[in-house]
Every structure is written in structure tokens, then in C-alpha cells.
């Protein structure tokens, strides 16, 4: 009986190198290195950022900032306003980290924030323009100052001008598709509309753009 007992204790820890009753220490996985971050999916980076890995959020910014900036530039038509909207987009994303849940819809979520930031920027610009108009209408009580010449560093591209004739819903879809590079499904998730509606708005928007660029405004 004694030999059997010794054998049982031996079998109970075979291959472990631990004595019976000992506690194997928990091994915490180390976070991925900075070299590995670019290989991770967006949702994985968001979860790491939510857990306090700042480099993971920086990797997300580097990955998506060019597309967001391009989208904002087309929406707003002004480089400085586009940069501000892009910065605010990623600030909004950072604030949302504690509530983020991975659903494989990151790009749609990101560009929903970007679209809202662009809309707010447009409203702010409209209010500022209205205030300036009212200010210019006020009687002058100071000596006339030299008129400030507003110069642009480059002419507005024809496509940028043509985009202004589109209805807002069409313009949003066109820019999300071609400036941001989103798929039909991602655009649908961003705007909260069916894929069929995305395709319809895109078709009508592109047809209107084509007519505008050809000079047919009928």
C-alpha cells in the first residue's frame, strides 16, 4: 500500500516538476511590442488602448489619419478646418475608449465621428460668416482701414466646386466612398442606412457630378 501511495504521488505531478500541492504562478501575457502593433486589427488596437497601451492608439492614428484628413478636406474645403476636424475626430475616438466594444465595424464608427465633426465645423463656419456679415453692416465709427485681400495658395479644383452642387446626402456618400475609401457596407453602417440606399445615392451623385463637370446643369 505504501508503494502504491508513493507511485500515485509521482503520477500526480508527472512532467510538471512541481511537488504535490504547490501553486503554479500565473503568467501574465506581456503586451505586444511596438513592432507588432501595425500588424494588429483595429479592434485589437482599440482594446489595447482601452487597457492603457498608448502606443496602440498612436498606431490607430497613424493608420487612419490620412483617410480622415482627406475626407475632411473634401467636406470642408479648407486645410486648417480639415486639420481641426481630424484632430477632433481622434479626440472623440479617444474619449470613447472606455465604452468601445469590438464589433468589426471600426472604420464605420470612426467616419461617423468624422462626419459629425465636419457637420459641426460647417455650422460653426456658417455662424461665423453670419456674424461677420452683421458686423460689416454696422455703421463705421473708426477710420477706414485698408481692405484685406484674401488670397488662396491654389485654385479650387473643378471637382471640389462641383461637389458643392450635390445634395448633402449624396455628397456624404460620394466622399465616404472616394475620399475615405469605405466600402458600401461601411458607408451604410456609418450613415445608418441600407446598402441599397448607399448605392442609389452614389449613382445619382456621380451622375450629377458628371453632368456638372461637362457643363450640363439642366
Describe the structure.
The chain has 218 residues and is an all-alpha fold. It has two domains: 36-136, Rna Polymerase Sigma Factor, Chain: A (Orthogonal Bundle), CATH 1.10.1740.10; 158-218, Orthogonal Bundle (Arc Repressor Mutant, subunit A). 63% of the residues lie in helices and 0% in strands. It has nine helices and no strands. The relative contact order is 0.09.
List keywords for this structure.
2 domains, Arc Repressor Mutant, subunit A, Rna Polymerase Sigma Factor, Chain: A, 218 residues, 9 helices
The general outline is elongated
Number of helices, counting only DSSP H or I runs of 4 residues or more:
9
Q: Strand tally, please?
A: 0
Instruction: Work out the strand percent.
Output: under 5%
Q: What ranges have pLDDT less than 50 throughout 5 or more consecutive residues? A: 4-18, 24-28, 128-157
Helix content: 55-70%
In quaternary terms, these chains amount to: single chain
Classification by helices and strands: mainly alpha
Fourth-level CATH superfamily of the largest domain: RNA polymerase sigma factor, region 2, helix turn helix motif
Biggest β-sheet strands, sense, barrel: none
How large is the radius of gyration? 28 Å
Average pLDDT number: 75
End-to-end span in angstroms? Answer: 102 Å
